[in-house]
Design a protein that fits this description.
This protein is α/β, with parallel strands linked by helices and 254 residues long. The chain has a single domain, classed as Metallo-beta-lactamase, Chain A (4-Layer Sandwich). It contains eight helices and 15 strands. The strands form two sheets. Strands 7, 8, 9, 10, 11, 12, 13 and 14 form an eight-stranded mixed sheet that branches. The chain has a seven-stranded mixed sheet with strand order 6-5-4-3-2-1-15. The mean pLDDT is 97.
């Protein structure tokens, strides 16, 4: 299995519009971050987790020629705003894209894309087949077993996912002990680390490091990063052993 980080930035991306800070002005490609998403590839499957506002460019940049499914973590705009851009996959593959989401996230999709769910379908609209995730039960996509990890994003429940030796969690500021047990034993865990200053709904870098230290995992990558965290190379060099900042385009093999 191969996991590619399509985006590692916070909801407004990096660079932040109009910002003159060193991170936003950086020429280091690792400091430029699209909205959070990953691409999972196996011999049988091509799956994306979340389709935010940068979805179209992310698919082009990564060369994603085939898309079997999109799995949604939650219904915030920076994670669902690109769903309309699945239409080329419908056209070339002559079939709907499978969508996996909780009932709560489906409600957000219906509000954002009422035309997809309308009884009368306008020609050329995105074609999807919706599959309901039960947050308490594993599910299977193209032969891949995926275990939901329930986390809190302030008071909103968001899903992370464990896929074999890999666990992906974004938009979290609390993980219950019973959910932490589902992560333990992973080779790699991805956690959000927004910035240094406290935030109401995201881990700070310090908090994310402490969570990572409490887990029984081999290595940790941090994502959902804002320009306020600092320059990639400087922050990354100060992290504890086996902890790293993720960056757009990073690929991991399992």
């Amino acid at each position: 299995m191969k996991v590619t980080f399509l985006g590692t930035g916070t909801s407004q991306g990096v660079p932040f519009i109009g910002c003159p800070c060193a991170v936003c002005a950086s020429t280091n490609k690792k400091d430029a971050r699209l909205r959070c998403a990953i691409w999972i590839q196996t011999d049988e499957a091509s799956i994306v987790i979340d389709s935010g506002p940068d979805f179209r460019y992310q698919m082009l940049r990564a060369g994603v020629k085939k898309l079997d499914a999109i799995i949604f973590t939650h219904g915030h705009k920076d994670h669902i705003a690109g769903l309309d851009d699945i239409r080329p996959y419908n056209f070339f593959e002559h079939k709907p894209v499978e969508v996996y989401a909780t009932e709560e996230t489906q409600e957000a999709l219906k509000r954002e894309y009422s035309y997809i769910f309308a009884d009368t379908k306008y020609p050329g609209i995105p074609q999807i087949d919706v599959n309901t995730i039960n947050a308490y039960d594993p599910f299977v996509v193209k032969g891949i077993t995926i275990t939901p990890i329930r986390v809190l994003h302030y008071k909103m429940e968001v899903l992370g996912f464990r896929i074999g030796d890999f666990t992906y969690i974004t938009d979290a500021n609390y993980i219950a002990p019973e959910e932490m047990q589902k992560i333990n034993g992973s080779k790699t865990v991805v956690l959000n680390a927004l910035r240094h200053e406290p935030h109401i709904s995201h881990y700070t870098l310090k908090e994310a490091i402490e969570v990572a230290k409490s887990l029984q995992v081999q290595e940790t990558y941090f994502t959902h990063i804002s320009h306020q965290l600092g320059l990639h190379d400087m922050v990354d060099s100060d992290l504890p052993e086996n902890m790293h900042l993720a960056y757009d385009g990073l690929a991991l093999e399992f």
